[in-house]
Amino acid sequence: LVLHLIQQSPKHGYEIIKEISDLVGDGYTPSAGTIYPTLTSLEEMNLINLLDIERKQYQITEFGKAYLTEQQDKLNELLEKLRLRREIHSNDELIEIHRAMENLKTALRLKLNSAGLQQDQIYQIAEKIDQAAVAIGRL
User: How far apart are CA 89 and CA 26, in angstroms?
Assistant: First the structure.
């Protein structure tokens, strides 16, 4: 996504943060602690380089353009997910579903980050999610 945004026009890290925030919506803003290391990695991979060293403005390289072309399907999939997410979050009729989805994500993060998760617990969690998916599909 970062490479895609830089391909559109050269950007500073702050501009990338702002554009991702706008794309994702719902008050999400990526941290500088995520974006700047990503920029460093992309630069080390020769996918971007500094256009303006003083202002730290990045541009995509020819290698970066080729890489992005190779990854076009994944990029399109990600952009579609972001579009759908914005639609869900902007639709007041679905606010209860959105709230429930966020609760599930939070519960999963907490459980998965806890130490000592046993294999049978992993199967149980996956089974519960599968059961919910089937039940929702049948509505």
Answer: 7
H-helix or E-strand spanning residue 14: helix 13-24
Paired tokens of 2: 């970062």
Backbone φ/ψ region at 116: left (φ over 0), alpha (ψ -120 to 50), beta: left
At position 81, the amino acid (one-letter code) is K
Q: One-letter amino acid identity for 62?
A: E
pLDDT tens digits, one per residue of 11-21: 999 999 999 98
User: Is the Cβ–Cβ distance between 17 and 6 less than 8 Å?
Assistant: no
What pTM value is reported for the model?
A: 0.62
How much is the pLDDT for 97?
A: 79
Number of helical (H) and strand (E) elements in the chain, helices listed first: 7, 2
Please list, in sequence order, all residues whose beta carbon lies within 8 angstroms of the beta carbon of residue 86, skipping any fewer than 6 positions away: 23, 24, 25, 26
Question: Cα(136)–Cα(129) distance, rounded to whole angstroms?
Answer: 11
pLDDT for position 88: 66
For 39, 42, 133, the CA distances from 61, given in Å and listed in that order, are 13, 10, 43
